[in-house]
Amino acid sequence: DSDEGSEELVLTPLQLICSLEQAWLNEKFAPELLESKPEIIECVVEQLDHMEANLKRAKKGDLKVSVHRMEIERIRYVLSSYLRCRLVKIEKFFPHVLEKEKSRAKGEPSILSPEEFAFAKEYMANTETYLKNVALKHMPPNLQKVALLKSVPKPNLDSFVFLRVLKRQENILVEPETDEQREYTIDLEEGSQHLIRYKTIAPLVASGAVQLI
């Protein structure tokens, strides 16, 4: 891009698919909804269209066609699984997701794509309407309101996750497991694998320093 002050990250097809797979695994194993990756999704869809167009021009009976067709189906599976996983989390934690979106600071990346944001708002409105029509309107006036933020469980950030370290990290603060223990710090060596509390390494997941597995 020749525009002054603008920057565009250029990825090879292999790097793009690796980025999708990393986002998919992180989303699959993280207890909370992670930051949306609309640029990756858009580029993957464009890449799939390009691959499909190449297959149509290939000679029939070419063994490469079968191999490339299998790769296309694999990428489609990862993409659909990633998006489905995000929708499941939105449905499960919708009031907390919307509250986080509402309170995020200016310039802070959104955890929702525009389409996911619209879905979350509609899902919340439908849930409130359903509760009102089925149950709340039959209850005393003082009990006809429900606080969804308190009623719907939050993501369990204290759950433990497996991870692989992609970039060496120093002095990661680990909270004690019991009252008798104290806080301590650890170094995470590149390539090492760990089982650790999610909220301890949540910022490292967001930065791409570690990969959930």
TrEMBL record:
All copies of domain GINS subunit, residue ranges: 63-134
Keyword list, A-Z: Chromosome, DNA replication, Nucleus
InterPro entries: GINS_A, GINS_bundle-like_dom_sf, GINS_Sld5, SLD5_C, Sld5_GINS_A
Compartments in which it is found: Chromosome; Nucleus
A GO CC term attached to the entry: GINS complex
Pfam family, one: SLD5_C
Residue span(s) of domain DNA replication complex GINS protein SLD5 C-terminal: 155-213
Major place of residence: nucleus
GO BP: any one term: DNA-templated DNA replication
Protein family membership: Belongs to the GINS4/SLD5 family.
Name of the protein in its database record: DNA replication complex GINS protein SLD5
Record organism: Odontophorus gujanensis
Lineage: Eukaryota, Metazoa, Chordata, Craniata, Vertebrata
